[in-house]
Amino acid sequence: MLTVAPDIDVLARFGRALADPIRCAILLTLRQAPAYPADLADALGVSRTRLSNHLACLRDCGLVVTVPDGRRTQYELADERLGHALDDLRAAVVAVATDRTCPDSEEKGCC
Question: What residue stretch is flagged as signal peptide (predicted)?
Answer without folding.
Answer: none
